[in-house]
Amino acid sequence: MSTLNTTSNGKKAFSLVALAGALTLAVAGCGGSDGTAGNAEPSTSTSSSSSSSMSSSPSESMTSSMASDTTPVGPGCADYAAQVPSGAGSVEGMSTANVTTAASNNPLLKTLTAAVSGQLNSQVNLVDTLNGGEFTVFAPVDTAFEKLPADTVNSLKTPEGAQTLTKVLTYHVVQGKMTPQQLLDAKSVKTVEGQNVEVAGSADALTVNGSTNVICGNVQTSNATVYLIDSVLMPPS
């Protein structure tokens, strides 16, 4: 299986943003139509309408736009779009499925899918939990798991390792769907595991806990916002 190039440390351009940005521009164009009409029509009633539509402050409009933005961002988004341009594992395809189904259809998340569905350890199955609410998921790609020592992975497969595996997996999950800007504004977000992860960088070049890079984030599923990351996050002891 081919994988994304995750060695650029968040410095590549995002051609996918340009592609998906057309949708954002279309929405923005619709939202601004009242203001444009107000400028074109000299009548008093239209001017009043225009004045009313401009009553919201620019900061409120900007906050609303960022909160509803579903454009994927990250240095690997272009590679991801090229590798999976269509079908169930594409950005568009993932958006229609719940998070575990979407992950299972993504060719970059085979190991993570096995880990949350009981295939890695039969005592750990988080499918119903992850599909039962809205979450933000930091999803390590397959090459991230390959960085782990073989002994560590093998230990997670044992009955004794079930609790540790659950702890590691839930450390990658945050309650509620969060945009990149919301994560940056929060700086530190509490995971389902109970401890916090730290988010820094910029909206199109996010880092988690300092050294983990978001390859492509803000990827939507029907109940979660997914951030593909290049390392497995380990909760503090």
From TrEMBL:
Q: Where is this region: Disordered?
A: 35-79
Return the SUPFAM superfamilies for the record: FAS1 domain
The residues forming the signal peptide are: 1-28
User: For bias kind Low complexity, which ranges apply?
Assistant: 40-68
Q: Which domain of life is it from?
A: Bacteria
Record-annotated FAS1 domain positions: 96-233
Q: Which UniProt keywords apply?
A: Signal
Pfam families named among the record's database cross-references: Fasciclin
- InterPro entries in the record: Adhesion/Biosynth-related (IPR050904), FAS1_dom_sf (IPR036378), FAS1_domain (IPR000782)
Q: Which PANTHER family match?
A: FI19380P1, PERIOSTIN-RELATED
Question: What is the name of the protein in this document?
Answer: Fasciclin domain-containing protein
